[in-house]
Write a structure and sequence with these properties.
The protein is an alpha/beta fold and about 210 residues long. It is built from 11 helices and 4 strands; from the N terminus they run H-H-E-H-H-H-E-H-E-H-H-H-E-H-H. A 4-stranded parallel β-sheet has the order 2-1-3-4.
Length: about 210
């Protein structure tokens, strides 16, 4: 396995943090506020958390998963805040780097497509040491699983073994979004916390050791 070039990653991080593509050259409607990309690249981490996009609280703090969703995700992973934010052990690369704004119902809009189209291939090519991608939510699963993804998120997560134990490519573990809005989903699907969460904690302990 190739090692990451720390210098290349540092420059890539700087380029992403300076990105204004969704304002200066948007695919459709421009981002409704100033861009603030939130991403954590790593030259040593073996796990990458691939989420959707920062929420408004994260947009204000600049710290990924600095909200209730992050608390639940850290609980699933068996990590405290210090270990979760140790960039040497964990990369965090959402599908959209900036808070996309809210829709008419007050919910977050989908991740901006410009981010993945412009940056995602370069990011993962520059982190060849990543062995496991935690694909959180449908957008990340669509990108990292492609045609292997099932018709629904529930079916995709139910078939986690298919992606985790495949013989080629990076291992992918599909997860539901840890938002508290998904509490009902977790109650309807108790197998997730019974089967998937223990496996997730075992993998995190192995790769973040």
């Amino acid at each position: 396995m190739r090692e990451a070039d720390a210098g290349v990653l540092a420059r890539l991080q700087q380029d992403i943090e300076a990105c204004r593509i969704c304002v200066d050259a948007p695919l459709k409607t421009p981002l409704p506020h100033a861009p603030r990309p939130v991403v954590r690249l790593s030259s040593t981490a073996r796990i990458c958390v691939a989420g959707q996009a920062p929420g408004n609280r994260v947009n204000l703090s600049g710290v990924p998963f600095d909200d209730a969703s992050g608390e639940r995700l850290r609980d699933w992973m068996g990590l405290d805040r210090a270990r979760f934010y140790d960039v040497a052990s964990l990369a965090i690369v959402p599908m959209g780097f900036c808070f996309p704004g809210t829709d008419t119902k007050g919910g977050d809009r989908p991740p901006r497509k410009e981010c993945a189209q412009r940056w995602r291939d370069s990011v993962f090519a520059s982190m060849p040491q990543i062995e496991l991608v935690l694909a959180i939510g449908g957008y990340a699963q669509a990108w990292h699983l492609g045609r292997e993804r099932k018709a629904t998120l529930t079916e995709t997560v139910e078939n986690w073994r298919q992606y985790l134990f495949r013989n080629e490519g990076r291992r992918v573990l599909p997860l539901p979004h840890p938002s508290w809005r998904n509490t009902a989903w977790l109650k309807r699907n108790p197998w997730f916390e019974r089967e998937v969460v223990p496996e997730l904690r075992t993998l995190v302990a192995q790769y973040c050791a």
